[in-house]
From TrEMBL:
<dbReference type="InterPro" id="IPR008854">
    <property type="entry name" value="TPMT"/>
</dbReference>
<protein>
    <recommendedName>
        <fullName>Thiol methyltransferase 1</fullName>
    </recommendedName>
</protein>
<keyword id="KW-0949">S-adenosyl-L-methionine</keyword>
<dbReference type="GO" id="GO:0008757">
    <property type="term" value="F:S-adenosylmethionine-dependent methyltransferase activity"/>
</dbReference>
<dbReference type="InterPro" id="IPR029063">
    <property type="entry name" value="SAM-dependent_MTases_sf"/>
</dbReference>
<keyword id="KW-0489">Methyltransferase</keyword>
<keyword id="KW-0597">Phosphoprotein</keyword>
<dbReference type="Pfam" id="PF05724">
    <property type="entry name" value="TPMT"/>
</dbReference>
<dbReference type="GO" id="GO:0032259">
    <property type="term" value="P:methylation"/>
</dbReference>
<keyword id="KW-0808">Transferase</keyword>
Amino acid sequence: MSSSVVHGCNKPLIDRFTVGADGWRRCWEEGVTPWDLGQPTPAVVDLVNSGTLPGGDHDGRATTVLVPGCGAGHDVVALSGAGRFVVGLDISEAAIHKATQRAAAADGNSFDFVAADFFTWEPPDKFDIIFDYTFFCAFEPSMRPAWAKRIAELLKQDGELITLMYLAEGQEAGPPFNTAVVDYEEVLNPLGFVMNSIQDNEVAVQSRKGMEKMARWKRMANPTSLNSAGETQTSP
Ligand SMILES: C[S@@+](CC[C@H](N)C(=O)[O-])C[C@H]1O[C@@H](n2cnc3c(N)ncnc32)[C@H](O)[C@@H]1O
């Protein structure tokens, strides 16, 4: 999703589709998906190959991974296997249909696709890992606290959040909306998330070079709890 998606050849995307669930659905139904790399994100392939991604036995079951806003599902399949079961979630039925078709040849026992709204979806279990790429930046900044609250609700207390941050700047509108590292920190830190590492994405595709960083986050061990508003409360 380069800036040109908004300001250049894909300007009609913004003119025709308002931001929101219907807008995303229409993008997929009409095949207007300029953000889709058509392949796994290279940084995801590197992450899998790095051996630093948890995988394997968790009390006799696989490590579970959620990819919210998975689109055509390339990263879902890339992250799956080696003891990981990955759920790709997207609000668009058409995206999930495409993802399911594309993934038909892969090992279907290690991933699944779900068409649902990230903000209201209620999975049976929380996840060990959540991987976010070009999802945070897809929402208006006013929705970022709600994004963080859902991440906290969907991730196990000792789980890991991995954000491949697309740091768009100079945008008059979105998506993608202007995004800086501090924007993640502002909504995640109050919920107890601590950034353990951050590095430039050296293998970003050409149009995104110099604009991406990968950060890995853990939550502090129970220093606080969430109240009903999703705000932190210090444990007594
Ligand atoms: C910019 S695209 C990125 C897709 C994918 N991560 C990729 O890199 O190709 C954002 C995706 O989020 C999905 N999406 C938007 N709002 C959503 C929501 N509330 N719940 C689930 N998916 C949503 C859209 O349908 C779209 O596929």
